[in-house]
Each structure stands twice: as structure tokens, then as C-alpha cells.
């Protein structure tokens, strides 16, 4: 992997361990333990992609993002972002990427948003003319005008997030890295931010890597999702592929001509009845057509609907430890779990 790579991000076997001191239950002495926050993560992101980086709490997402942006140095593997080693070329990289942490602001708390953005221009050395036109464009797209002269501390969360996005994009970066950008936003603000990100990616071709727990963000924005669990990759692909890969149940809803006891077919019994309507949970391996035919042999069927598992159900299964086909997942020492290094 050389600097000549045209990929936006190349991660090969990237890992990060933290050493923490902790008192074990029933022991008096504190021991130094290593927490493997990220453990052997490999992936490539090409220019123009919009990728969701997902995983349960503590999976290692923020740690990965901190390594990608040069805030933390990887303890294993190699990483290139825009062809650069992030921890060694942090300043050069900062000119080519934008970063937004939903939980924190990079704006100056006491300054009006307009002045904060002017400072950002100076920091990045953006040419004043280019800044003016870019600011005008971002102000229109993010609807910043009504609060450009308001001190950042007085902005609502949604307004501040739009301000942070503008600050991250003023220097027109090739890659935008977002850590939970819609956290705490109301439905209208979320929709504004999502619409903006979708356009940024589609029209300007900005590559976007997004971590989120928001299912709407994932379904609306991410053509590709990468999932990590306890520091290790467990899935990389499209949402449809994820639904198919995970052994998620489907729900068959049948409407019979009359109410009756729960239907049983091929060992599957309706788990809910409501008048003539009955709900049967079909394992992925069940043949839906055969189940429907078997029901139709015994009953008068008025209507049928087959519901695929929602992305929420799919992710919940994955986060509970149900592995998609082809992704055996963590084995051996559980990554993320502390391992004792030495007693103190
Ligand atoms: N500075 C640190 N020192 C010690 N352990 C850390 C440090 N930062 C993170 N960790 C640990 O690394 C693991 C991964 O944390 P990380 O913040 O990357 O998870 P995450 O996927 O972003 O979680 P969340 O969805 O809750 O934000 C956790 O076990 C966490 O406690």
C-alpha cells in the first residue's frame, strides 16, 4: 500500500489498545489491563462513497474515527487517509478532510457563528474570495442566515450542528467524517441534516463516513454499512445484503375468512391472532410459499402479507451476537474485554 493509492481510506489490520488500571472484584491490588478497543479492522473506502460505520456502544467506532483523523495513533496495522498516514501527517490531512463530532462543537462558544466561521477560514488558510462564495453556498444550503450573528452558546442543538457542518466544509474537503451528527436533533432538524449530507455526497461527490445509532440515518443515507462489534469487523456490505445475511425472522400475516384458533403449519404456530388475522413468525429457512399453500389447503385465505425484518431487528440480532453468514465474528479472547497485563 503506497501513497499513490487512489482510495480515500485504506485500513489494514488496524488495532488500538488502551492500558487501564482497574480493581478486580474481590482483589485489593489494582491491575494494569489492556483493552483492545479496535482489533484487526481492514477496509477500503473509495472516493464518492457514503458509508455507515455501525456497532453497539463501546464497539470501537469513535476510536477508529480518532485514528482516521490522526487524533490517536494506531497500535497495530497500517492506515492511509487521502494517501496520508493520519497520525504523522495530521496537519496536511486536516486540509483535506472535515470532521464533525455530534457531541462536541469545534466552534468558538462566545463568538457569533459568522466570526467563528471567519476564524476557521484563517486556520485553514482559505482564500477570502473562495471563502465568501463557499460560505454563501453553505449558508443557503444549511439555512444559517437567521442565526449567523448569534453567539454559538445561544444556538439550539440543531442550529449548532448546522454551524459545525459549515465549519467542517468551508475548506471543501474530499472526505467528511461524522460521529453521530444527528444525536439529540428533532425530526425536522434531522431531516435537514440528512438532506444536506445526501446532496453533498451526490452533487459534490464528497466521500462521507458516518457513525450513528440512528436507524433513519442508516436507511436514508448509507448505501454501504460496515459493522464492528467488540473491536472486530462483523459485516461490510449493502443494507439489503445485511438483511439477507442475517438470519432474521420474517412475519407472515394472513387474513382468513373468519376468526379461529391459532393456525399451525410445518411446526409454526401463529404467535398472535386478531379476529380473522393471524401472525406467523417464519424463520429465514422456512419456505414462505409452502407455508402459504399449506394454510390455504385448510383455510379460506382472504389476504396475505410477508414482512421482511426491519433494519432495527437485523441490527439488534447482530448486536446480540447473532452472526451473519460468512462472518464468524469474534472467537478466542473476546476483544474489548480486558486482559491482565501485570499486577501492580
Ligand atoms: N482513552 C481510553 N482509555 C481506555 N479505554 C478506552 C478509551 N477510549 C475508549 N476506550 C474503550 O474502548 C472501547 C471502544 O470505545 P469507543 O468509544 O471507540 O466505542 P464506540 O463504538 O464509539 O461506542 P459508542 O457507540 O458508545 O460511542 C470501549 O471499551 C471503551 O471503554
From TrEMBL:
The keyword Chloroplast does not apply. GO terms for molecular function: ATP binding. SMART domains: AAA (SM00382). It holds the Pfam family ABC_tran. It is a peripheral membrane protein. Residues 325-344 are annotated as: Disordered. InterPro entries: AAA+_ATPase, ABC_transporter-like_ATP-bd, ABC_transporter_ATP-binding, P-loop_NTPase. Keywords: Antibiotic resistance, ATP-binding, Nucleotide-binding, Transport. The keyword Plastid does not apply. Residues 20-255 form the ABC transporter domain. It is found in: Cell membrane. This is ABC-2 type transport system ATP-binding protein. It comes from Actinomadura algeriensis.
Amino acid at each position: 500500500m503506497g501513497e499513490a493509492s487512489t482510495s480515500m481510506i485504506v485500513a489494514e489490520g488496524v488495532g488500538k489498545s488502551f492500558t487501564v488500571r482497574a480493581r478486580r472484584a474481590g482483589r485489593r491490588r489494582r491491575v494494569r489491563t489492556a483493552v483492545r478497543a479496535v482489533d484487526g479492522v481492514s477496509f477500503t473506502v473509495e472516493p464518492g462513497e457514503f458509508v455507515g460505520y455501525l456497532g453497539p456502544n463501546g464497539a470501537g467506532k469513535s476510536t477508529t474515527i480518532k485514528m482516521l483523523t490522526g487524533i490517536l495513533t494506531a497500535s497495530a496495522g497500517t492506515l492511509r487517509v487521502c494517501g496520508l498516514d493520519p497520525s504523522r501527517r495530521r496537519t496536511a490531512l486536516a486540509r483535506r478532510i472535515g470532521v464533525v463530532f455530534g457531541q462536541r462543537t469545534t466552534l468558538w462558544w462566545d463568538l457569533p457563528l459568522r466570526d467563528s466561521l471567519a476564524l476557521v477560514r484563517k486556520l485553514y488558510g482559505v482564500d477570502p474570495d473562495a471563502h465568501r462564495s463557499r460560505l454563501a453556498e453553505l449558508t443557503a444550503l444549511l439555512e444559517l442566515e437567521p442565526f449567523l450573528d448569534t453567539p454559538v452558546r445561544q444556538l439550539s442543538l440543531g442550529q449548532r450542528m448546522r454551524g459545525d457542518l459549515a465549519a467542517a466544509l468551508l475548506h471543501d474537503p474530499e472526505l467528511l467524517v461524522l460521529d453521530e451528527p444527528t444525536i439529540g436533533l428533532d425530526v425536522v432538524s434531522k431531516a435537514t441534516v440528512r438532506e444536506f449530507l445526501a446532496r453533498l455526497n451526490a452533487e459534490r461527490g464528497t466521500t462521507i463516513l458516518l457513525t450513528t445509532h440512528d436507524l433513519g440515518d442508516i436507511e436514508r443515507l448509507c448505501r454501504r454499512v460496515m459493522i464492528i462489534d467488540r473491536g472486530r469487523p462483523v459485516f461490510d456490505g449493502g443494507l439489503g445484503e445485511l438483511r439477507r445475511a442475517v438470519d432474521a425472522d420474517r412475519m407472515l400475516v394472513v387474513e382468513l375468512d373468519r376468526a379461529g384458533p391459532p393456525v399451525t403449519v410445518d411446526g409454526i404456530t401463529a404467535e398472535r391472532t386478531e379476529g380473522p388475522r393471524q401472525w406467523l413468525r417464519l424463520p429465514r429457512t422456512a419456505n414462505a410459499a409452502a407455508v402459504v399453500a399449506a394454510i390455504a389447503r385448510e383455510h379460506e385465505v382472504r389476504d396475505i402479507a410477508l414482512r421482511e425484518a426491519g433494519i432495527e431487528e437485523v441490527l439488534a440480532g447482530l448486536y446480540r451476537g447473532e452472526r451473519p453468514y460468512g462472518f464468524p465474528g469474534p472467537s478466542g479472547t473476546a476483544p474489548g474485554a480486558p486482559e491482565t497485563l501485570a499486577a501492580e
